[in-house]
Every structure is written in C-alpha cells, then in structure tokens.
Amino acid sequence: MREALLIIDMLNDFVSPDGLLYCGDEARKIIPYIKGLIREKRKEGAAIIFAKDAHERDDKEFKRFPPHCIKGTKGAEIIEELKPESGDCIVEKRRFSAFFETDLDEILKRENITKVHVVGVCTSICVMATVSDLCARDYEIYVHRMGVADFDREAHEFSLRHMERVFGAKII
What we know:
Blueprint: E1 2-8, H1 12-15, H2 25-29, H3 31-44, E2 47-53, E3 89-93, H4 104-110, E4 113-121, H5 123-136, E5 140-149, H6 153-165, E6 170-171
Helix pairs in contact: 5-6
C-alpha cells in the first residue's frame, strides 16, 4: 500500500498576488512547507498528484465566483515554485472536489494508494470538498495544517475542525 500527496489548486490565479482570485498572503506562506513536503514524499516513493482548477470561459461556477483558472491561461498554471516533475500526476477539475468528473479515484486505486496527504487552497472550499470525497471512499486522510490556507481565517479554522471531526482526517 502506498501514500499520495495531493496538492490542491496551487495555481497562479489563487496564489500569485496578481491572480484573479488571490487567496492572500496566507496562501503565499504555505509554499515553502509544500515544497519541502513534496521533496520528502518523493524520497519516500509517494505518488505526487496535483489537482488543479481548469475552467471553460463560460463555466457556471462564475455565477458564484469571478472568472478564474480558465484553461490555457497563465492563471490556470501551477505556480513556478511547485512545478510538477516527470512522473507527477496532474488532475484537471472543474468543480470544488478533485473527484468530481475526474479520474482521481482510478489513479489512486491503480497506484494502490490507501493514505492521502492533502495540502493546498482553499481550506474551506476545494480542500474540504476533496477531503469529504476521500472520506466517502474510505481513504486514510492527513491534512497538513501548515500546508493549507484560505481567504477567511474563521472558515479555515472551522474547516480544519470539521474535516477532523466529521471526515476523520488527521490534522497534522
């Protein structure tokens, strides 16, 4: 049985100060932690998986949020500091959960993954939605407190407690 490191939405539109839906300085602060964790998990032989928003220009999500992470734009690219390497997996998603209409579950099963470490943005939106779906599929879940960030500090703290209490994630 293997582990995976799932890196959620560390994209220019969310993490770069000039991004269309910038998550703020808290999102910038988690970059070094995630970079170190990627290095550590690679050495351990874990699967490295990047889940990234990839919207069409007319996506219905833009009724709730400003247009962001449109396919083919710089905003939809993974930030330079965390560029994937050969052998890493990239899952494009168009909704909050990295499982919705993607092949993430098949990838995890094919790689014999049972334990998933989660980092990225936003804690209260895409991270929590993905953790909910990991729970529904009976994965062992670890959310790294130093590796997640949100627009809203209160929502961030609530989400960490919720993922631990409701979805059984270990907050480390």
